[in-house]
Amino acid sequence: MEFFRDSKINFVGAMKPAFSLSVVLLLAAAVSLILHGGPRQSIDFTGGTDVQVRFEPAPDISEIRDVLAAAGIEGAQVQEFGAVNEFLVRAPEMEEDLLNASQVLLAAMRDNMPGYDIELRREESVGPKVGGELRSAAANAIALSLVLIVIYIWFRFVFRYGIAAIVALVHDVVLTLGVFSLLDLEVSLSVIAAFLTIIGYSLNDTIVVFDRIRENMKLRRKESYRDVINRSINECLSRTMLTSLTTFFVAFTLYLFGGPVIHDFAFALSFGVVIGTYSSMFIASPVLVFWYERFIAERKRAGAEM
């Protein structure tokens, strides 16, 4: 199936506007992360207790917050979770041990809200030491994956291809983190899994284009470097759009109908597919053009002058 037959879109010609747009978005993401003190982390990384409860009848969310504050539970966060009568109550590390922390939260609500039937639906507790270890493991996993990607692409292609791929991948991850910060969404272990999936997906798209560039560089030696890059992206365009749209529709369907448990994961994946497709066409390949024209072409001219 081909969506585009013999397309001649000037992707390299849009390099400067695309870079400008990306710089603006990256700056917005950086400002948001700085103002928020980094992304909002789930208890997977910070330690604490999550309690999912169902009320009959449905109370006002401010009433639950007031009850917890009056009970001396500082820093508790309450949000609706799927239905109007279901809430996720999150408390940071408490003096009680982890096994009793959820019962303290539940007792505070039941004792001070006698007119409601309160059902415990789910509880989850993570100690601060475990949270710190998980945070370090997540950061190490992302960093190691980027290093291994550079090494892999360096051996399969050449070094500048690896740098171009990493620029695109960092672009994708930072923008996704920025969107999570702007929307005040939590970064949990499942979201880290989505980030790693985004890295793999974006890399796959980029390598397909790089393979076509390498083939065309051998077959079309008389064409300019920019023309080869443009031709290669256009030749992969139908495949890229078919793969991206299929993946996006699946991820977005999960976002709409998958329920609150995987809501953030599906959102990260949906956004990542869009931004990953954009970066493979407008960031990774144009970086090759920039590198070639800035360094390799200048080196050749300098050699000719000598």
Q: Report mean pLDDT, rounded to a whole number.
A: 80
CATH-derived architecture of the largest domain: Up-down Bundle
Count of separate structural domains: 2
Summarize the biggest pleated sheet. 4 strands, antiparallel
What is the 3D shape?
elongated
Structural class, judged by helices and strands? alpha+beta
Q: Name the poorly predicted regions.
A: none
CATH superfamily of the largest domain: Multidrug efflux transporter AcrB transmembrane domain
Q: Give the N-terminus to C-terminus distance in angstroms.
A: 51 Å
| Count, helices | 10
Listing every helix as H and every strand as E from the N terminus to the C terminus, the arrangement reads: HEHEHEEHEHHEHHHH
Beta strand %: 5-15%
Rg of Cα set: 25 Å
What's this model, at a glance?
This protein has ten helices and six strands, in the order αβαβαββαβααβαααα. It is α+β, with helices and mostly antiparallel strands and 306 residues long. It is elongated.
Characterise this structure.
With 306 residues, this protein is an alpha+beta fold. It has 2 domains: 12-41 and 130-305, Multidrug efflux transporter AcrB transmembrane domain (Multidrug efflux transporter AcrB transmembrane fold, Up-down Bundle); 48-126, Alpha-Beta Plaits. 68% of the residues lie in helices and 12% in strands. The protein has 10 helices and 6 strands. The protein has helices at 15-35, 43-46, 61-70, 98-112, 128-156, 159-182, 189-219, 225-235, 237-257, 263-305, and strands spanning 40-41, 48-56, 77-81, 83-91, 117-126, 186-187. The strands form 2 sheets. It has a 4-stranded antiparallel beta sheet with strand order 3-4-2-5. Strands 1-6 form a two-stranded parallel ribbon. The longest helix has 43 residues, at 263-305. The chain is elongated.
